[in-house]
Amino acid sequence: MAVNHRELSWDDISLTNKLLGSGNFGEVRKGTVNLDGERIPSAIKVLKRGADEAARQDFQQEVDIMRHAGYHPNIINLLGTCEHQGNVVRVHRQQYMALEMAGNGDLKNYLRKSRVLEVKDPAYANTRQTVSTVSSLSPVQLLRIACDVATGMEHLSSKDVIHRDLAARNVLLTDSLIAKVADFGLSRGEGIYEQTSKKAVPFRSTALEALSRRIYTTQSDVWSFGILLWEIVTLGGTPYSGMNSRTLLRSLREGYRLPKPRNCDEDLYVYFSLLPTCVL
Ligand code: AMP
Predict the structure, then answer these.
(1) Could you say which of 3.40.30.10, 1.10.510.10, 1.10.443.10, 3.40.50.300 is the CATH number of the domain covering 107-273?
(2) Which residue, by CA, sits nearest to atom 10 of ligand 1?
(3) Distance between CA atoms of 91 and 85, rounded to whole angstroms?
(4) In angstroms, what is the span from residue 96 Cα to ligand 1's centroid?
(5) Where in the chain is the domain with CATH 1.10.510.10?
(6) Annotated catalytic residue, options 58, 165, 265, 267
(7) Active-site residues (predicted)?
(8) Could you tell me if 230 and 258 are in contact, meaning their C-beta atoms sit under 8 angstroms apart?
(9) Which of 8, 149, 237, 250 is 20 to 30 A away from residue 40, measured at CA?
């Protein structure tokens, strides 16, 4: 269902106690929202109690970027927002963000759960022969997920939204295994972004120019997409496992790139390496 963001009244929202996760500014709970008389399953993000001004601004910025991005089937869409006191009297009114529900959670965990052999080994699938013998997901399903992410990212880039933190943990899967790019609301809606704050950088999936000079563009998102493809092929493996950020930066500058996982087809690996600035 393609819906445009709207202001919701408190009566339109129904929250359960089921915690889906917690993030930068607060909790995400399972719930439903009432849209035109229809109850839609939703993940409801609530700003932390006693959140400071910076967190409030980040929350508002996430809403603004999601609104700017508009609807697309391969991104997590904003259903609506609501400001309300909730059931408890608080100094601040609480802010709520109702997001489309992705019932199968994040891609990284889902890939790891699909492993039929050793679940926790970070080098898994690097040492196995073919995806079909190591995963309960078929190669076609895995490729479908990769295509969904590419389509969602293409939409974001057409809106000049740079993600800056694309990785399997920030892709969510619906009940029918449609992949949706999430957490782009923390990005910046600009063609090029120079990070000036000292926020922690997800160094394993960040492009070399972004690590070195803090310059983020759609091309640096393409680098992260290459790493995400590697995560898919290794069923949630940890990229550059065993390397710390300093060693990795030095190695990347010297031309080192993620090696081909053993279970990855040679043709597929060569194809990925042709992606612009891609690292595979
Ligand atoms: P976030 O604050 O966006 O990083 O979300 C924290 C966690 O909540 C995520 O890692 C997911 O496990 C969960 N979550 C967030 N949004 C959704 C959603 N739309 N559907 C299902 N789970 C979600």
Answers:
(1) 1.10.510.10
(2) 21
(3) 9
(4) 14
(5) 107-273
(6) 165
(7) 165
(8) yes
(9) 149
Task: State both tokens at 102.
Answer: 């992705």
E runs forming strands in the chain: 6-7, 13-22, 26-35, 38-47, 78-84, 94-100, 171-173, 179-181, 192-194, 215-217
263 is in an annotated binding site: no
From-to residues of CATH 3.30.200.20 in the chain: 6-100
Look at ligand 1, atom 11, and give the residue with the nearest C-alpha: 21
Q: Can you tell me which atom of ligand 1 is nearest the CA of 76?
A: 19
165 is annotated as an active-site residue = yes
Helix (H, G, I), strand (E, B) or coil at 79: strand
Pick the residue whose CA is nearest to atom 16 on ligand 1: 43
Query: Tens of pLDDT along the chain (280 residues)?
Result: 565 668 899 999 999 999 999 877 789 999 999 998 999 999 999 987 778 888 888 888 899 999 999 999 999 999 999 988 655 544 456 889 999 999 999 999 999 999 876 555 555 555 555 544 577 888 889 999 999 999 999 999 999 999 999 999 999 999 999 999 999 876 765 555 555 555 678 999 999 999 998 889 999 999 999 999 999 988 899 999 989 999 999 999 999 999 888 778 777 777 666 654 444 3
Give 21 Cα–ligand 1 centroid separation in angstroms.
6
Q: 6-100 architecture in CATH?
A: 2-Layer Sandwich (3.30)
